[in-house]
Amino acid sequence: MHKVRWGVLGVARIATTKVIPAMQGGQLSEIVGIASRDRGRAEEAAHRLGIRKAYGSYEEMLADPEIEAVYNPLPNHLHVPLSMRAAEAGKHVLCEKPIAMNTAEARKLMAVRDRTGVIVGEAFMVRAHPQWIRAMELVRGGRIGRLRTALGSFCYFNANAENIRNIAAYGGGALMDIGCYPVKVARMVFGEEPRRVAAAIVRDAQFGTDTLTSATLEFPSGHAVFTCSTQAVPNQSMQFIGTKGRLWMDIPFNTIPDQVSRLRIDDGRDLNGSGITVEEFPACDQYMLQGDLFSRAIREHGQPPVPLEDALLNMAVIEALFRAAETGKWEEPAAFAGGADSTS
Questions:
Q1: Which of 294, 328, 331, 335 has CB atoms 3.0–4.6 Å from 320's, for a disulfide?
Q2: CA 36 to CA 19: how far, in whole Å?
Q3: CATH of the domain spanning 129-282+314-327
Q4: The dihedral of CA 203, 209, 212, 216: what is its sign?
Q5: Domain spans of the chain?
């Protein structure tokens, strides 16, 4: 199977330090070019990363017939506009999370995908990691009984006013940047969509972005509760509690590529942890796995790891959480005709 020829929109840190090096090590992905509105920055990144082509504009890269697929790591407000332009140019698109600024934008991207026939997906790399695949297997297989509760947190500290994560117009804030992860994995592991959600938000007086968001998602089978913050000590956790046990990962989201990952299962026999067993997973790079899965979908005309249908449903939950924080009431995520595979 020939490698898919990829181009990258922009020189974002996540692209140049994580995603590009990872995909360059994959079996099915080749990074051919990188674009920036500043040709010098594109050329510097291309030289440093061993990429053959550098472009001085996004349009220049999208016009290159050698590029088959595009990775879009641009700020959130540019996810849909540039992904739509890439799709219109006949390129498949892997777009960073969150897929859009709101559900209306996400629907526009879906309409362009349907019209152009390209593959478009959301870059939730956790969907490709073996520890999450195994967690879903264990829950589906009844290892912890009936899943009742998911508990999580995801935080870091960033008070830089110039950072895109602190710019409201760019889609900054805790819920959009990192809260989307517990929303995604809760939906993924429950295998259901939340009926209604509640939220409390604290906003930064200067930035206007949410710096502390706490949320409750009510699923048919149970609840998910999480907190995310852009102004708290760095931490991340995700625990799933059932009627006969619980499971959690040492590092649920930003696993370290060159280290073993661990999934812990507790049968609850006592509080001393004598019922805990540990499953280990060899070191792997979830960004590389994500890239190869997406490339395989292109070559085999299949589905990407996280299709737009699923991305739209995740966006609907995020949108409902923002509404709930404003109204102080439970809010229902918008329903979509056709639904989606919530195990994606």
A1: 331
A2: 16
A3: 3.30.360.10
A4: positive
A5: 4-126+289-306, 129-282+314-327
